[in-house]
Amino acid sequence: MYPAIVRPVLNLAAPTDPSWLPRALAGLDEVLLDHAHAEKKAASTALTLIFRYPERADLARPLSELAREELGHFEQVLTHLERRGVGFGRQRPSPYAGRLQAAVRSQEPGRLVDTLLCCAVIEARSCERFQLLAEALDDSALAAFYRGLLASEARHHGLYVELARGIDPGAPERLKTIAEHEARVLTEAPAWPRLHT
Amino acid sequence: MYPAIVRPVLNLAAPTDPSWLPRALAGLDEVLLDHAHAEKKAASTALTLIFRYPERADLARPLSELAREELGHFEQVLTHLERRGVGFGRQRPSPYAGRLQAAVRSQEPGRLVDTLLCCAVIEARSCERFQLLAEALDDSALAAFYRGLLASEARHHGLYVELARGIDPGAPERLKTIAEHEARVLTEAPAWPRLHT
Asked: Would residue B28 count as lying in a domain?
């Protein structure tokens, strides 16, 4: 019996489709590998923002702290991969993050605000799916790991929304548009076992 | 009276020119800003290597740990910049890192080995210069900060050499060539107040 999500969490526009969890559980090692790449990518995105906007001193410290935390999670996922005998390596990425970017405006400050909000939505979706995994996994060590990640994903979501709001007070309204775009991206995603499909 | 370095440290081919320290002390805020960028760049380089060589599982964890440490240092430098009333922002970078890259071979595994060895040499040079700063600074909080960084820079140097040796047992010999190149790059560097000029 899989847990039922009755309403979207953390400003998401739609809950995860019920088909995702059985697919993820059937391809758990692939999902775990995808998760490792996602943590690394999250750190890299935060670092890229520090490089791209050095004049925004208000972003540098929180994004650096966040990148450190994502890298810590990356190392934890590596530990679970090793424990399960799965090697870290290349993997065909889900088109999710790329398609999400299509909602980002090209002119500043919209570009920065939307990038931060896309990060916020990714964190929210991860949080929702980590909860699904935590409740359904037979691997108790992995379930405990995912339960432990929920709070930080929710905190990262809040941080990204706050950073965006600090730049544009209209960011929470814009978040709704980005979240609707994200829900559409998921309905068009390939049926691969990935964290974000 | 500035401290005299009588011999190169950590496999460097030549000690820092005596003109560097007075220039650095006279332009300390610029050096500190350069240091912030250097820590951020060090984290980014480590992360780039994880992205570029995902099949090298032996690199992923140590480089992730190193990147986290570099980001922690980045945040500490930001604190010192704030304390001294210097805003974090753009700065014309020293050509040092770019010119160092000219020694990197284009074919694998030489490209990876040389990149790791360039990182090792940069860490060694930072370590040497942090010691010079620690011994000469009037700002006692900053001097203590630089003294505290010495051990981690030396450890990072050793880690990069070990990672390179794990790929190519001839790496310690190749390190001499890279270190000689680094010493030449420094003799041709512009006389700006930067960490690596």
From this structure: yes
Measured between CA atoms, how close is A116 to chain B, in angstroms? 19
Q: Do the Cβ atoms of B161 and B117 come closer than 8 Å?
A: yes
In a domain, B50, yes or no: yes
Q: What is the pLDDT of residue A7?
A: 54
**What's the domain count of chain A?**
1
From chain A, pick out residues whose CB is under 8 angstroms from the CB of B37. Answer: 54
Task: Over range B2-18, report the average pLDDT.
Answer: 74
Find out whether the peptide bond into B18 is cis, omega within 30 degrees of 0: no
Q: Looking at chain A, which residue has its C-alpha nearest residue B46?
A: A44
- Output the pTM of the full model: 0.94
- Chain A CB contacts of B60 under 8 Å are 74, 78, 88
Indicate the residue type of B188: E
What lies within 8 Å, CB to CB, of A139 at 6+ separation is A28, A84
Q: What is the identity of the amino acid at B48?
A: T
Q: How far is B194 from chain A (nearest CA, A)?
A: 17
Between B50, B68, B87, which is nearest A57 by CB?
Answer: B87
What CATH number does the domain containing B151 carry? Answer: 1.20.1260.10
> From the list B54, B55, B78, which residue is nearest A61 (CB)?
B78
Predicted ipTM > 0.90: yes
pLDDT of B54 higher than 90: yes
Q: What pLDDT does residue B6 have?
A: 45
Q: Domain range for residue A164?
A: 19-85+104-187
CA nearest B11: which of B192, B153, B168? Answer: B153
pLDDT greater than 60 at residue B42: yes
Q: Considering the domain boundaries, does residue A177 fall inside one?
A: yes
Identify the weakest region by mean pLDDT among A14-18, B4-8, B95-99: B4-8
pLDDT band at A9 (very low <50, low <70, confident <90, very high): confident
* B193 found inside a domain: no
Average pLDDT of the residues in A70-77: 98
Residues from B contacting A (CB-CB < 8 Å) are 37, 40, 43-44, 47, 50-51, 54-55, 57, 60-61, 64-65, 67-68, 71-72, 74-75, 78, 87-90
| Non-local CB neighbours of A101 within 8 Å, separated by 6+ positions | A118
CA gap B121, B173 in Å, rounded: 13
Look at residue A6 and tell me whether its pLDDT is greater than 50.
no
